[in-house]
Amino acid sequence: ELARWQRPLRADFPIVAANPEQAYLDSAATAQKPRQVLDAVHAYLTTSNANAGRGSYPWANATTALVAGAAQRVREFLGDRSAGAGAGASPVHFTSGTTEGLRTVARDWLPQLLRDGDEIVVPFGDHRANLAPWLEARDLLAAQGVRIAVREMPCQAGTGDYDARALAALAGPRTRFVAATHVHHVYGADMNVHRIREAVGPDVPICLDAAQSVGHQPVSVADLDVDFLVFSGHKALALPGTGAVWARGERGPAFRPGGWAGTPNTAGIASLAAALDWLEAAGVERITRWTAALASVLTDGLSRMPAYEVLGCRSSLAADTAVQRRGSIVTFRHQAIGSQDLGFILFSHGFMVRSDDHCQAGRDPQDGSVRVSLHVYNTLEEMEKLLTALAKLQ
Ligand code: PMP
Asked: Which residue ranges does the chain devote to CATH 3.90.1150.10?
């Protein structure tokens, strides 16, 4: 049933259809784009391209409305039940991706919150984009005589996802901010972030890096009870150079990300709205099940080949859920072949994978691995062919 659902969706991706001998397995870096997204960009640029928030002629008004509409689309897609599109709606700030989004929170908002002696808790072993901005904010504040302590978000020894009990013990009256990652970009694990709120209490702002969850699994800011949610549009089927920060409207210091100070990427914003429409029509929950099924096939196959080690961090959520959640990312190493070489060999067989340290914070770059990351257009046949190619390298 899922295979019948998937086939026409795969056909929506022109680059995939044009390259039947190639398997794109690097969607965690950036995803391919469906025709409908490309059409939306073309339609915008050929009917009403202008700047947003300035000018009062029809194309400028249409562009301003496009940006406001896309912001509302983001709120809806993220399950923000609090407000309509009008005044009082939670701010949505468009960025070039998650890196710029996290940096925006760190630069434009966090310093307003912090006082001398405060503490923040941030992840040390996730993507560098979710560590560097917090350290920079600390250093900037230190230069102004405001000392902030940065604590490491604790992880569970057995699974590697966040340890809510240890976090509850770590968080004290001076804990003013927590940053976390929804799904790990190397291990694919769902990091169990819904337990962070109960660990830190109602008043501590939580900022979530959702780069690897938006578009892959249902994401609800209401259920997660976070204050900032940052994601990459380009990993969620929109154009390169797109992303957004959603900020909870009604609480904390105002989030002032520059307003209309610069020219926004309006074509990219049009693509993001179209991508969210496409994902919703396809069914995000089905995308989760499809890619988890493919990832399970790959993980199971690799576990039968002694030459390979699958890296992980297995989410403790996997044990709680009926459908075993393996996400859309499988990362592994060969015992003898280096990850760069393995990447080249796999490309010679038509597989596009990522092979390096994956921008993971705190990792030795020598310590590389091969990452296979999936999206809705990938197929079981691709997984079987990949396993055949990997088996020959044992
Ligand atoms: N955080 C995570 C968890 C990621 O996987 C990535 C992309 N690899 C980023 C941040 C950075 O995203 P972007 O390239 O859109 O800035």
From this structure: 2-25+283-392
Atom of ligand 1 nearest to the CA of 129: 10
Q: Which of 27, 98, 186 to mutate to test ligand 1, by most ligand atoms within 8 A of the CB atom? A: 98
Using CA atoms, how far apart are residues 238 and 368, in angstroms rounded to an integer? 28
What is d(CA 108, CA 207) in angstroms, rounded to the nearest whole number? 13
Tell whether the model's pLDDT for residue 366 goes beyond 80. no
Res. 24: pLDDT tops 80: yes
Considering the segment(s) 2-25+283-392 as one domain, its CATH architecture is Alpha-Beta Complex (3.90)
Specify the range with the lowest mean pLDDT, choosing from 230-234, 239-243, 281-285, 327-331. 327-331
Q: Is the CB of 354 under 6 A from ligand 1?
A: no
Q: Which CATH class for the 38-280 domain?
A: alpha beta
| Å from CA of 46 to ligand 1 middle | 31
Amino acid at 35: R
Q: What is the best residue among 94, 127, 130 to mutate for testing ligand 1's pocket, by most ligand atoms within 8 Å of CB?
A: 127
